[in-house]
Amino acid sequence: MAAALHSTTTGHGSLADSGDQSLDDLHELLTVDDVAALLKVSRKWVYEHTRSRKMPRSERLPHIKLGKYVRFGPCAVRAFLAKRRQKA
Length: 88
Prior knowledge:
The protein has helices at residues 2-10, 32-39, 43-51, 74-87; strands at residues 64-66, 69-71. It is mainly alpha-helical. The protein is globular, with a radius of gyration of 13 Å.
């Protein structure tokens, strides 16, 4: 899981390399458990930050819905964290 975030910084086969999300890069999608572990928060916190109507859409954790499953792009998670750091 942490390797997925790390690989995006090294530029080897990451979602950010090509500027689009090709099918070859789907192996890098993170699960709710992955994101919760990386951010050291609960699964509930992750779910709340993907769907909370109390916060503007721009403040939500970016995610991809695959049926009932929620997945996260490593680059999107990093961008979310960077945005939060700027506001702090």
